[in-house]
Amino acid sequence: MEKVAVAMSGGVDSSLAAALLKEKGHPVIGVTMLVRPEDEAEAPTKASPDFVNDARRVADALGIPHYVIDLRDIFHQQVILPFCQEYRVGRTPNPCVRCNRYIKFDALFHRASSLGARCIATGHHARITRDDTNGRMLLRKGKDRRKDQSYFLYALTQEQLSYAIFPIGELTKEEVREIARKKGLPVAKRPESQDICFLPGNNRAEFLRDFIPQAAQLGPIRDERGDIIGRHQGILNYTIGQRKGLSIAAGEPRYVLAIEPENNTVIVGRRESAFGDELVANQMNWVAIDRPTETITAKARIRYRHAEADVTITPVYNDSVYVKFMEPQLAITPGQAIVFYDGDKVLGGGTIKLSGKSTALKQMKEFACNG
Hints:
- By secondary structure, the protein is α/β, with parallel strands linked by helices.
- The protein folds into 3 domains: 4-201, 3-Layer(aba) Sandwich (Rossmann fold); 218-269, Roll (SH3 type barrels), CATH 2.30.30.280; 275-370, Beta Barrel (Elongation Factor Tu (Ef-tu), domain 3), CATH 2.40.30.10.
- It has 8 helices and 17 strands.
- A 6-stranded antiparallel barrel has the order 12-15-14-13-16-17. Strands 3-2-1-4-7 form a 5-stranded parallel sheet, with helices on both faces. Strands 9-8-11-10 form a 4-stranded mixed sheet, with no helix packed on it.
- Helix 3 (72-88) runs antiparallel to helix 4.
- The protein is globular, with a radius of gyration of 22 Å.
């Protein structure tokens, strides 16, 4: 069997992935990434980050080699800088999508290849199958729909899917923990983290303030008529659809409708104004199908926890798509991923570029309808 590198984060999902692969007879190595500036790159010490120590404990328990791989430089270039740039221009990025494509299934895999690995496995709740009619690799939802992570994996290429393995994709989270407990894995009870891995204390604003201080400048909050109704604390603190933390006096809740970095302004309005039924997405990656040449229908998610919605997808110029929702959706947010599904199968996805009432979106819509 081929040697498999397991990306071990110190959590129960990736730990059980390593255990299951070893149980099946694969030669397995554990690889743990260093991505944060403060992470230690030295040999094992008590000062190592907790996730490194936990991954090492699991590897020792399984009797497999464990390697700590320093990817801080490429992670900074491919994930942290784009993350900051998106906030600088008023968008809300999803760094996990870029990390999967450019770090875990690219940089980390190629470093693991030098150790003899031919595949890379992770603890993602997702599945991979092959379309027997055309040989295409298919990305599917994990068995546990509550924990399904296919949304974060839509950007993987066909080549990357060909050497990726998701050993726990057929298990629920409860089954993962129970099997890990029975196998005596030392992290079986470790709680899940919802944090972005490179944000100390998950403090986004403090982190961004160091990288993009211009986005921390105070500025006006305006209503839909253009009247100033408050002061914001820097556009990096806001995202489309946000209701809490606006610090404005209003008779009813207000939601962030738009962020205008060019004049350092946050626009707010009533909840009904935060709904939209169209967007344009770019940076498309098609998984189950080739790039469509005409309008197709699908289900779509505009956030990880978003309920799937019926859409039509029309290709437009520059490899973008115009998406029309059958029902209005709350807080369509530029910078976030939109992922298209056919049942449990990922058709493809991209980055939301335009939403709201922009002239550019109107032009794309006219192109889609007339072209």
